[in-house]
Predict the structure.
Amino acid sequence: MRRQLSQAEVLAAVVDDVLALPDRPIDSLTMGTCLAAVASHGLGLASLVSHIVPGLAPARPKNVPATVHEALRLLADPATDGTDLASVAMAAANSLLPLPEDVRDGAGQDLLTSLGRGKDVAVVGHFPFTASLREACRTLWVLEKRPRPGDLPAEMAGEILPRADMVAVTGTTLLNGSLAGLLSACREDAVVIMLGPTTPFAPGLVRCGIDVLAGCVVPDPEAALAGIRAGSCFKGLSGVRQCSWPRPGLTV
């Protein structure tokens, strides 16, 4: 198994990477039905926790943080864990983190399918591409808090993850308190990929045991913001470019 980390230590790895960068003022905060967007150096996105967790009321900061570094206080506050305020903080982090020079264009799901071909793969959460991924893998386990037919309950993660050659988690595991526990259950030799718009390109996450960070950049902020205001989710959002960043030394 991998070395044991607390969720606070994982979040601190992201926060430290952002605090090492010059601070920037937050120009705007946009919150739709599915996504939060923060504009500073760039436009950073994050999934809203309230869109994912049934019955959770949407939450908006009483006052928009003045700067990105100030917004990170929301991420460090235990009271915001598992709320939309954590989503706002992660969107702020993503607005400041630079795109790595050796990032690769392409959707994370394509890389997951390529790396997982013929292997035993565990996916935490029911992704839209689960059916096509199942065709490529030798075995596919889908762990889900609200299981659909063919899924397994999320509580079985401790039993399933040690059997997986590859594990896929969403960036929202940074927001709901679950990432550290999932990482600790993965084999040392398993490849772990984090997917989705919430995923920050933070080198600290690689040091925590993430092998591939598959997120996005927003080359057309106006198009993306129009979609977010209209209630679009990431799958149908215009103005974004998906890309992935494998850790150095990983063969992809």
The chain has a mean pLDDT of 93. Residues 104-217+240-246 form a domain with the Rossmann fold fold (CATH 3.40.50.11590).
